[in-house]
Amino acid sequence: MAGVAVSTTINGDNVEYLCQPDETLLDVLRDRLGLTGAKEGCGTGDCGACSIILDDRLVCSCLVLGAEAEGRRVETIEGMAHGDRLHPLQQKFLEHAALQCGICTPGFLIAAKDLLAKNPDPTEEEIRFGLAGNLCRCTGYDKIVRAVQDAASVMKGA
Amino acid sequence: MNFDPRYSNRSFTSVGTRPIRPDGVDKVTGRARYGADFNMAGQLVGRVLRSPHPHAKIRKIDTAKAEKLAGVKAVITAADLPDLTDGDAAMYDILDNCMARKKALYDGHAVAAVAAVDARTARQALKLIEVDYEVLLHVTDVDEAMKHTAPLLNDAIFTEGLEEKPVKPSNVTKRTQFGHGDIHEGFGQADFVVKRSFKTEQTHQGYIEPHACVASVSSDGTADLWVCTQGHFVYRQHCAQLLGMEASKLRVTSSEIGGGFGGKTHVWAEPVALALARKAGRPVKLVMTRDEVFRASGPTSATSIDVRIGARKDGTITAAEATLRYSCGPYAGMWAEIGAMTAFACYRLENVRTVGYEVLVNRPKTAAYRAPSAPMAAFAVESAIDELAKEIGMDPVEFRIRNAAQEGTRSSYGPVYGPIGIGPTLEAAKNHPHMKAPLGKNQGRGMACGFWFNFGGQTCTDLNIGMDGSVSLAVGTVDVGGSRASLSLVAAEELGIAYEQVKAVVADTSSLGYNDMTDGSRGTFSSSMATISAARNTIKILRERAAQMWDIPVDDVVWEKGHAIAKGEKYGNLAALSLKEIAAASGKTGGPIAGHSELVADGAGVSFATHICDIEVDPETGTTRVLRYTVVQDAGKAVHPTYVEGQYQGGAAQGIGWALNEEYIYGKDGRLQNPGFLDYRIPVCSDLPMIDTQILEIPNPNHPYGVRGVGETSIVPPLAAIANAVSNAAGVRMTHIPMSPPRILAAIEAERGG
């Protein structure tokens, strides 16, 4: 099967790749581009570990084809920090110990970033429903919610 | 050097603080490498063909067409994994589970595997493998499997532990019994007796990272395995034995692990990946899909439990009895045995008896799941305890306090307790504001206790001092949730230096001596003990080096706050030497400075918890909402309190899922109907409230800092605490877990109808 040539933007960089028509964007990111921050927890859009932002929209990259990224903007966890300066969400996740095993963390951070971009001052309930597409099995979500609350207040002040 | 592990009271500088974990930045930036994030040059993709039948004889497997497909580099069946287990029945079961030999024993049992140049080719190749099955009758329910008429999974199994050796084979592999006193006499003294039967459905650990590994085998017999595991040394031993390799020639590196909870303590795909790599002559990456994780890794047991407890009017329990039946999947296990040991461990009982039955069923092999077997036993016992308190007319907390085990109590499973936390957790729960908060309509409050043994085990740790005075700590226990932070704190505490000066890593199997798994809540308990021992050995060398630098007797040198100090007035003019200064001079005073420790960490202190929760039940639909949840647990000593809280919260959340939602659902055809996160629904963020925690510290006398394991106990009380809350809210006793809306509705309607 012939490959599809794709030209896209990932974390601000122009990127070109060849992929199979049935290959997911998650597989392209991980296997072709070496961006393994997005994780495959289920492959069916249920766990959110592969969350990325595609043209300002939060998506599960396991449900997007690599070919669909043509001409679009992709943001992954690898682009969240500015150089060695962490995003406030990343910093607050560390401070609140909002991760244990950490496999769900990149997806949570991307989803939380998207949530705060759309709602800078969410209630606890809005955070809980906003992050309901991301599964965490270690923390019981308590410290994740607190980290997002804290990051939101820091980002508002900034 | 002799190491004294006994507890001594002390004040702490580093231990008990809450610094950021050393592996944190990598995990929030996507840099951390998990099982599937590693690749080797020339790597192939491995895929496994699995049985669609729950029970079938494998007559023939024809792999010829698959082998001919372009891009396929190896196809293997059980024939490529010859039996080298030499009569070791447990290892034979592991081998048979990795690749079915004569029979497929569950929906999802591996029967063949391929390695190909890419995933698509590998998938195509699987479709070309022809398996000729003779489908057999199957059984998936634990009670059904115990019947004489049930299809037999293994006709070589005769129940062990019966007074007379049975003449017929059975699905019951073993009967075990624990207890003391005379229960008949005890029930004779009782004014009230509660007798109930309970069921719990099978659940999965639900770690978000599927099993993943990369295997490489060279023609000279050396091999590398990169894998997400809770115990790389155990994986090395099992893989080496199954593949006929020398353990030292197989280097196993544990990746970052994306959750395990007991489910990554067994080899499943790793021997298969190694066999594929050996046959193909190229590295092979094997990653399970989520469907495979559910169908073919190791969930916990489904259970059926009968409980009988009797008490006098004054609230003293006079006798307690339980019969526990646990499913093991198709291979013998000791799950009911553990359940029988833990069932009444919270209580001071004169007459107690528990009996466990291990039952084979056509489901995947049962694996450990966080305090394995204890939550189901606690569900049954703590439900009956609540009911008994109600019959007597006592407050359920007071009833438990009256009967709680104490220091000196002979436990229901045998040993006599040292200082324990069941009484203090109950007192703390009783005085917690949560207990007094008002409840609304259709809301109920429940509480329950839980126990877990905790484990210590074989542990090996190296502590190396760099030339610049920084400290590398190499441990062999996999870090499942922050132990590199807690162990760095312990090293810093013992050496008297800053936390930031220590860097902890999990060493591979070729770099460190053998370590048992990270299981039994042993990671921080045992590796901190080994770290303390290694640090003390290092301090001895540091003192010797300082003595040499000063040219004074070593006995005159003490170690305080990260410095060597010459003791005595005659040395008044000698300035203290810092660790950094001694390290900088080490090349001239005898070379590298390091401390090692190899020990068996005995004396893991038992752990107790009490949970409180409020649940609202919608009587029209049977749906539930968790309104408030509080965990009180004894940590011995919380090394990094934030991660201790995290363990309490995480265990509670898993217990909430188990209690209310999660279950393996099998169709009449014996196939798993919900092998995905959409239909096997674990709690999401919007399902839960904040989870309050209260850490108690009753020092473990067998650890220098008093540390107890904290990881597992938190999943023991929730099933019962929630069942008690739902029962109180709905006005009907719930006896079947999970308490899904249809089950709650049926219970309410039966009560109304009755």
UniProtKB/TrEMBL annotation, chain A:
Organism, scientific name: Mesorhizobium wenxiniae
Matching PROSITE patterns: 2FE2S_FER_1 (PS00197), 2FE2S_FER_2 (PS51085)
CDD domains in the cross-refs: fer2
Single annotated GO MF: oxidoreductase activity
Name of the protein: Ferredoxin
Annotated ranges, domain 2Fe-2S ferredoxin-type: 4-80
InterPro entries: 2Fe-2S-bd (IPR002888), 2Fe-2S-bd_dom_sf (IPR036884), 2Fe-2S_ferredoxin-like_sf (IPR036010), 2Fe-2S_ferredoxin-type (IPR001041), 2Fe2S_fd_BS (IPR006058), Beta-grasp_dom_sf (IPR012675), Diverse_Oxidoreductases (IPR051452)
Domain of life: Bacteria
Entry-linked PANTHER family: OXIDOREDUCTASE WITH IRON-SULFUR SUBUNIT
Keywords, in A-Z order: 2Fe-2S, Iron, Iron-sulfur, Metal-binding, Oxidoreductase
Automatic annotation (TrEMBL), chain B:
One GO molecular-function entry: oxidoreductase activity
Record-linked SUPFAM superfamilies: CO dehydrogenase molybdoprotein N-domain-like (SSF54665), Molybdenum cofactor-binding domain (SSF56003)
Domain of life the protein comes from: Bacteria
Keyword Oxidoreductase attributed: yes
Pfam families, sorted: Ald_Xan_dh_C (PF01315), MoCoBD_1 (PF02738), MoCoBD_2 (PF20256)
Domain spans labelled Aldehyde oxidase/xanthine dehydrogenase a/b hammerhead: 29-137
Keywords, sorted A to Z: Molybdenum, Oxidoreductase
PANTHER family assigned: ALDEHYDE OXIDASE 1-RELATED (PTHR11908:SF132), XANTHINE DEHYDROGENASE (PTHR11908)
Identification of the protein by name: Oxidoreductase
Organism per entry: Mesorhizobium wenxiniae
